[in-house]
Amino acid sequence: MEANVDNLERRCPRLGGDVNFGYCRSCGEGQSPCPKIFDCWWEYFDVVAFFRACSEEENPGLLGSPDPPKPKVASLMELIHGAKSRLAQASDI
Amino acid sequence: MNNSFVVLKKEEMPTQWYNILAEIKMNPPLGPDGKPVLPEDLAPVFPMNLIEQEVCTDRWIDIPEEVQDVLRIWRPSPLVRATRLEKALDTPAKIYIKDESVSPPGSHKPNTAVAQAYYNKAFGVKKLTTETGAGQWGSALSFACSQFGLECKVYMVRVSFDQKPYRKMMMETWGGRCVPSPSPETLVGREVLARVPETPGTLGIAISEAVEEAVSDTTGKTRYALGSVLNHVMLHQTVIGLEARKQFEKIGEYPDIVIGCAGGGSNFSGLAFPFVYDKINGKDIEIYPVEPKACPTMTRAPFGYDHGDSAKYTPMLPMHSLGHDFVPPPIHAGGLRYHGMAPTVSQLITEGIITPRAVTQLESYAAAVTWAKTQGYIPAPETGHALAAVIEEAKKAKEEGREKVIVASFSGHGLLDLGGYQKYFSGTMTDAFVSDEQIAAVAQILESNPQPDMLRSFQ
Fold this sequence. Notes:
The complex is a heterodimer of chains A (about 90) and B (about 450). By secondary structure, chain A is mainly alpha-helical. Chain A has one domain. Chain A has 5 helices and 2 strands. In chain A, strands 1-2 form a two-stranded antiparallel ribbon. In chain A, a hairpin with a 6-residue loop joins β1 and β2. Chain A is elongated and about 50 Å long. The relative contact order of chain A is 0.09. Chain B has 18 helices and 15 strands. A 7-stranded mixed β-sheet of chain B has the order 1-4-5-15-10-11-14, with helices on both faces. The longest helix of chain B is centred in the C-terminal third of the chain and has 20 residues. At the A-B interface, α3, α4 and α5 of A face α7, α10 and α17 of B.
């Protein structure tokens, strides 16, 4: 079943083109599932049941107690810090 | 005056933006350390004049002459009465759309792109970076940069880059440089490519690349631009609603219902915020942001006693349940439902000033096709969400026999986004609601638990 659903395609509202379910399972932060995965896919198949059947290792945090999503400004701050540390590390090498 | 196509003269375009922050109280944005973000924290990515605008609470903010000059290439945009759609629906409602598809890139996005390019130029910035998914924002920013002689670099998620060559060509026609993300041009891009050379990319990686390029320019001549969510973006879009108000004034009408599709919130805010101001000041008006219908966790789930947690530590409670081991994803958790939307829009929802509506994919495409067959223009898929709510309201007006005035934002055309239409016509787009068998399977589990009484406090 897993391989089949991974090949299902739909239009991604964020990318404006077709993506498959396999992509949505890994396009979030740190290769986690997209935060919109339930809202996008429920019209196609029982995505909730699918994730319930998956192991925690495969989908860490998705069905646990996820942290609240970050506001945009906070995530921008993280990106700035991340970029600065990468650049600092690169200049040290 | 022809009331089916209402235009303003160039000199009638609004000269000030409306700032919703004058009306509503917002919690300050917090950084990762939990402390309020300071203007200097954002200085590596935004010029100080835009950061000041982000936190400004003045009600009216002048639109600089240079910005007005560029906006006048296509603004004021027309307010169009959809008489053919009205006729097809046999509705007494008067349906108007504010047509933002007439801009050079074909959407509402340049309303803020032009302003952001101007403020960066005024601050001495030479180059803007950004990320783009569908390419609408990337093309809007490329167009805006071309008007102010700025360099523009767009990181486009590779999967979109490959699917949408025409968007890339639009950006390049305006002088922007569009590269697939991840790219070998940034540290983060190189890291990802080394690990997964064939990766299709993600929006997260594209944003990281665009931010890194801005941060790494030690001359301070490169900054980053964002096309949604932030307060200054919503502010710049209000030119849409301010024009619409003037246009209604010209024909002696005023809307009963305002509708806009709400993704990041900028298109909806643009039309709606000036009408929110009127509502706060006593106007009787309904304002609906429309979004895709979300995963149903409550509406059809069986009612029974269940544990509130997967570890079964909590007492059994009567609830609508998809099973105790189902924990709703964060997007469904109360107010967090709207985390991807502009905080100002979320706040107005929380305060009950605007009421969110949801439509399914099929309803959205059906509405878009109805629009195209009656009014001619092919809407962007997101615009279809707003049109679905318009049609629903127009039908309701017919049932009630009321001549309501409805206005919606036509946020963009769909000529570069026809793949969705193809799927719609091929019948592969399905509204496969959680099946009865699946619901029954959960109900069977709950049946083994004690059964609650279906109590009614009011008959």
